Amino acid sequence: MKKHIQKERFQSEPRQPATIGQTRTPVGVEVRNLGKKYGAQTVLTDISLKIEPGEIFTIMGPSGSGKSVLLRQIAGLEAPTSGAVAINGHNPADPDTRDRFAIALVFQAGALFNSLSVYDNLALYPLEHRIGTRAQIRDRVMRALKILSLEGAVNKNPSELSGGMKKRVAIARALVMEPQLLLYDEPTSELDPVMSATIGEIIATLKQEYQVTSIVVSHDRDLALTISNRVAILMRGKLLSLSDPAGLRRDTTPEIIDFLNPKIDLRNPRYKNMAA
Q: What is the pTM assigned to this prediction?
């Protein structure tokens, strides 16, 4: 893979100039009997689900349930121990799949380069891989910044941005790839309720206007129940529920009720000082 990238860097012509500004067809994702282990630790067990092209699919569950691990398998960042993932029938870990489909990942912490401006963060990948001319790449970057209302931040460094702006820059960077599949890892973590709602509106708008397939890993119940077409809930590495938001609200499974409607029992000894 490394040699493949180096070869592309030294091409004299842009690699895929024809993709600039084109509308792409959203892709579907299928997870079949997927299992993942790290040494003796089993993280995911027999996960099977199908994500339709163009839908917003949210993966929820308690901390440690395997949500982000599942997202990494779908993104092709890790290979499953058993089972398989397919993006329109192709293995996401195969380099040819990356050439065939536009896939972008929004990391939980943003993963912005602090030494680069907002513009340079967005332009880095297409410039390095010669995806279009410099003028085409600039147009694509500025279009993404406009969609996210970030034109005024174009020359700022990440250290000058608020947490919410960093999240939006991370989404804009993914949008520069004009993705067919957009993966979000905890996009509203560490954000206040107002900014969380804004990020939710952005995800929903991108789905409506660009028909991108979106997979969201989140603890945010309000986000999941508001923007999702369907929601999967993982518990202890297993798929406990797969439903649309309306069905999830009606679910009577005790574990799901407790997860979606957590309550603090002040009679618990650990809270005795608070109850006084």
A: 0.82
Write phi, then psi, for 193 (nearest 5 degrees): -55, -35
Could you tell me the sign of the dihedral formed by the alpha carbons of 218, 220, 221, 224, in that order?
negative
For residue 215, give the 3-state DSSP assignment.
strand
Domain edges within the chain: 30-102+181-276, 104-178
The residues with which 47 forms a beta bridge, in sequence order, are: 34
- Longest Cα–Cα distance in the chain: 73
The whole-angstrom separation of Cα 249 and Cα 243 is 9
The model's pLDDT over 81-117, given as tens digits with 9 standing for 90+, comes to 999 999 999 999 998 888 888 888 888 776 888 888 9
Q: How far apart are CA 173 and CA 119, in angstroms?
A: 9
Domain 30-102+181-276 falls under CATH 3.30.565.10: no
Render pLDDT for 133-155 as a digit per residue (tens, 0 to 9).
Answer: 889 889 989 988 988 888 888 89
